[in-house]
UniProtKB/TrEMBL annotation:
EC class: transferase
Matches recorded under SUPFAM superfamilies: UDP-Glycosyltransferase/glycogen phosphorylase (SSF53756)
Function: Phosphorylase is an important allosteric enzyme in carbohydrate metabolism. Enzymes from different sources differ in their regulatory mechanisms and in their natural substrates. However, all known phosphorylases share catalytic and structural properties.
Organism: Candidatus Cetobacterium colombiensis
Enzyme Commission (EC) number: 2.4.1.1
Cofactor(s) needed by this chain: pyridoxal 5'-phosphate
Protein known as: Alpha-1,4 glucan phosphorylase
Pfam families: Phosphorylase
């Protein structure tokens, strides 16, 4: 976008005046921010409309990415960068005595996701638009999203996240494009001359209202759409006579029940009502999204039989896998197709990404709940299941054990991963090792049946958000040294390797890192009143809290270090600051107990003068995108220590790598591919391999007591969890102790502990060699370009979705 400072200032003053009837001198900080945002949206909107018109006119094949999460982060700065007007805006506002950085801080963090799944979806949206691919998102407009985390006396408390208390600046409500989603009731199939027609009785009808958010590409001409649906009571069901008679409670109860669908991300599913709400959420946005797509497609006047030629739909993890049943419903019931034609279109249209091998994430719904909630969809899935069983039976000569393991409905449950696999033409894992585990173990029977459907697409991150936006000085250094082509092609980052022995470049790297660390030091002092040494090693583990991610291994090592320092205060170690950031699911008591242990250990260590601040521990409360944008550029060590074979890919590992951190890792997920790039000398690897873990699990040959009995340090650590060292309540950490003693250390924390201690000592030794450490950082940055989501999206577009880049200017 071409914009000079004077033109911007005129536009901004006019927008501020028209919107709030105020001058820059009189307006509040909030009004200044809102005026800027509305002006930037004006700048984007013209290209947004032109993009949609171009797609329609040229009948471009479009892809729709269905995901439960889209963790976008703040958008204003990204828009300014992608429009290439940030400097002009900053200078223009300065002339008006307005600080752009202050305005940027006014923007709320959209609470539309939790962790890696949502951040990946956001990265993919950015890359699709930046590369000029016709690709959109579809999800839920969560009014409160994931909870706000508050640490009170060391415990996690979940507070309401009211991020939408004001209208979200970037969204546009489209009530005229609302659709109706049905739940419950009864469905009777009627034979008619034109085929079987379903009749619905006693259904609950909910209005799905779309809110569109522009996804602006860095090419400054493509603006795709993230469409999020909000659940509302249809206006025609609001009985004014009832309200006038005073029967408010009946109306309020109904309104609350409907709106609950789009209130909270991942409601607690430990109860029946929680499970039911999750199921309704998933069907709600899938049905609304598919209806919206089909309605738009029919305006092209192309034959419904060509639907998959113009539309691709991607199922991001199992949450949207009900799309198989819903697309079939629409094609059968609304479009009147026969079964075989509808099934052919469905399979050709849908593709599925599996993000985990953990059984709890492979969603399964109770059959009776499914029947009560979406009865017509269950009818269709039962028929899909019946036909699939016939297919498998013919192939495997009635091998009922194999049939039972693969079928969709079994043992009173509807298995959603199986539905997604059977109903999609492509199934991909998200890292090479993850895909191989899917093919050879978790989904082996499906792989034997459909080998042509399975493929790998390693995850990626957008450098525009995680380098250019968050670490601009490093971005400038890397792109200047790597050449002008690296601005649009991160694969050219590899040219940065030429400067691995350049002392000036290494010194500049060091200064940039220190500056980023000083920002964190200031933040931690202001928020937690903890003094952090910016010259200490910043050792960072920030991610969702789960047993397999092994925050427990990390804190055990910190206790080990503390014990060594108590025994010998003169111990010569490089000062180390350990950062944690994580939210635990409200019903995941073990995870919440680990948070309590981390905060308790931090309280003891940070207030013990005898160790002379050689180690500090900081728990970053309410971890999300904005905190990630602060801590990732400052990280020296990237903790990627999941139990091998459990982490599908990871994307935090890539963000830290791109920002010049050294990865401390097991060979799990995308860590393997990072290792393939940088090798032993630029990464610290430890622990069991994936195959070793799977063998121990399969043979049930691991006995944690064998490790414990031979390791006095571990014995002391576990004893300290119950002797009052870190809590006056000696039963405080019983959940962790039961996880070890009662469950048998299922994530091999004790097994990998000695190797982890050795790996941490290597980190200490490497860091003492200042030049050598900086060279390691540079090598990681240079190789990080491979992990750009641009590379991932090009492969998805070419090999799965078959969509083409659009160049509107040509």
């Amino acid at each position: 976008m071409i914009l000079n400072k004077n033109k911007f200032k005129d536009d901004y003053i006019k927008r501020l005046t028209l919107t709030f009837a105020q001058s820059p001198a009189d307006a509040s900080l909030e009004h200044k921010y809102l005026a800027l945002g509305k002006l930037i949206r004006d700048y984007i909107s013209e290209s947004w409309a032109e993009t949609n018109m171009y797609y329609t006119k040229h009948k471009s094949k479009q892809m729709y990415y269905f995901s439960m999460e889209f963790l976008l982060g703040r958008l204003l700065n990204s828009y300014l960068l992608n429009l290439d007007i940030r400097d002009v805006v900053k200078d223009g506002l300065r002339d008006l005595n307005i600080d752009l950085d202050e305005l940027l801080e006014q923007e709320p963090d959209p609470a539309l996701g939790n962790g890696g799944l949502g951040r990946l979806a956001a990265c993919f949206m950015d890359s699709l638009a930046s590369l000029g691919f016709p690709g959109h998102g579809c999800g839920i407009r969560f009014k409160h999203g994931l909870f706000n985390q508050k640490i009170v006396n060391g415990y996690q408390k979940e507070l309401l996240n009211n991020w939408l208390k004001e209208d979200f600046l970037w969204e546009i409500k489209k009530p005229e494009k609302s659709v109706t989603v049905r739940f419950g009731g009864q469905v009777h199939l009627m034979n008619t001359p034109t085929g079987i027609v379903p009749n619905y009785f006693g259904c609950e009808e909910i209005n799905a209202v779309p809110y569109d958010i522009p996804i602006l590409g860095a090419n400054m001409e493509t603006v795709n759409t993230l469409r999020l649906f909000s659940a509302e009571v249809p206006e025609e069901e609001i009985d004014l006579n009832t309200l006038q008679k005073g029967d408010y409670q009946k109306f309020i109860d109904k309104k609350f029940a409907v709106e609950a669908i789009s209130q909270i991300l991942y409601p607690d599913d430990s109860s029946y009502q929680g499970k039911l709400l999750r199921l309704k959420q998933e069907y709600f946005f899938v049905s609304a999204g598919l209806q919206s797509i089909l309605r738009k497609y029919k305006k092209t006047r192309e034959s419904i039989h060509k639907f998959s030629d113009f539309i691709a739909i991607h199922i991001n993890d199992t949450h949207p896998s009900i799309a198989v049943g819903e697309l079939m419903r629409l094609l059968l019931d609304e479009e009147g197709l026969d079964w075989d034609s509808a099934w052919d279109i469905t399979v050709k249209t849908l593709a599925y990404t599996n993000h985990t091998i953990l059984s709890e994430a492979m969603e399964r719904w109770p059959y009776d709940m499914f029947k009560k909630t979406v009865p017509r969809i269950l009818m269709i899935i039962e028929e899909i299941d019946r036909r699939f069983c016939e297919e498998v039976s013919q192939k495997y000569e009635e091998d009922y054990h194999k049939i039972d393991s693969m079928r969709i409905i079994f043992n009173g449950e509807v298995r959603m991963a199986n539905l997604a696999i059977i109903g999609s033409h492509s199934i991909n894992g998200v890292a090479k090792i993850h895909t191989e585990i899917l093919k050879n173990r978790e989904l082996h029977d499906f792989y034997l049946l459909y080998p042509e459907r399975f493929n790998n697409k390693t995850n990626g991150i957008t450098h525009r958000r995680w380098l250019k936006n968050d670490n601009p000085e490093l971005y400038k250094l890397v792109t200047e040294k790597s050449g002008p082509e690296s601005i649009n092609d991160t694969n050219k980052f590899i040219n940065f390797l030429k400067f691995v022995n350049d002392d000036n470049v290494l010194h500049t790297l060091e200064k940039i890192k220190l500056k980023n660390k000083e920002k964190v030091v200031t933040y931690v002092k202001q928020k937690y009143n903890i003094d952090v040494n910016p010259f200490s090693i910043f050792d960072v583990q920030v991610k969702r809290l789960h047993g397999y991610k092994r925050q427990l291994l990390n804190i055990f090592h910190i206790i080990y270090l503390y014990n060594k320092l108590k025994e010998n205060p003169e111990l010569d170690i490089v000062p180390r600051t350990f950062f944690f950031g994580a939210k635990a699911a409200p019903s995941y008591y073990l995870a919440k107990n680990i948070i309590k242990l981390i905060t308790s250990v931090a309280n003891v260590i940070n207030n013990d003068p005898s160790i002379r601040s050689k180690i500090k521990v900081v728990f970053l409360e309410n971890y999300g995108v904005s905190i990630a944008e602060l801590i990732i550029p400052a990280g020296d060590v990237s903790e990627q220590i999941s139990t091998a074979s459990k982490e599908a890919s990871g994307t935090g590992n890539m963000k830290f790598m791109m920002n010049g951190a050294v990865t401390l890792a097991t060979l799990d997920g995308a860590n393997v591919e990072i290792y393939d790039e940088v090798g032993d000398s630029n990464m610290v690897v430890f622990g069991l391999t994936s195959q070793e873990v799977m063998d121990l699990e399969k043979n049930r040959s691991y006995n944690f007591r064998d490790v414990l009995n031979s390791n006095l340090d571990l014995q002391k650590i576990l004893r300290q969890l119950s002797d009052g060292t870190f809590s006056g309540n000696k039963e405080e950490f019983n959940a962790i102790l039961n996880h070890i003693y009662g469950e048998g250390d299922p994530y091999f924390v004790l097994k990998d502990f000695p190797a982890y201690v050795e790996a941490q000592q290597k980190i200490n030794d490497f860091y003492e060699d200042k030049k050598g450490w900086l060279q390691m950082c540079l090598v990681n940055i240079a190789h990080s370009g491979k992990f750009s989501s641009d590379n991932s999206i090009r492969k998805y577009a070419d090999e799965i979705w078959h969509i083409k880049e659009v160049k509107r200017g040509e």
